[in-house]
Amino acid sequence: VGAGFGYFIANNLAIGIRPRLSYNEFNIDSYSSPTSIQESTNINSLDFGLGAFGRYYIDISKRIKFYVSANVGFRVGNSENKTIRNNIERSRPGSFVGVFANISPGLAFFVSKKVALEVTYGSLYFNTYNNTRKNVSFVNEDKTINYGFDFNSSAFSFGLSYYF
What we know:
Elements: E1 4-10, E2 13-32, E3 37-59, E4 64-85, E5 88-110, E6 115-121, E7 123-134, E8 139-150, E9 156-163
Parallel strand pairs: 1-9
Antiparallel strand pairs: 1-2, 2-3, 3-4, 4-5, 5-6, 5-7, 6-9, 7-8
């Protein structure tokens, strides 16, 4: 869930903040043919973030505006990876801290002077995360750095913004 709160500092130029709360959960079941070993994995994560944005809008019509948004921020979260194999359950909790920056295009439909429904597609991005995963006998720490262009089918984002 993410909502933005912005303020127009000049004609068609806004700055603002965007808090983020996210929960993800997925399950993976796998089978090994030769030994028929079933493995079931459940992964869930909960994270919180806060970002700042700057946007420049170009009028398409009175209510529709194209924009380019520059965003920076951070995310912190926890995860848990539970695996059941041969009726033995293993749980590996983890946590992460990260920062991100991106530039993305979008469209805003202003339903009123202060409220807009938004859609973005794609971005030029950079992010880095420090990950910590605890295992039975050790702690694994690593750093992930990602950058590039993201224009695949999952790169759509929908949102709602309120402007003061």
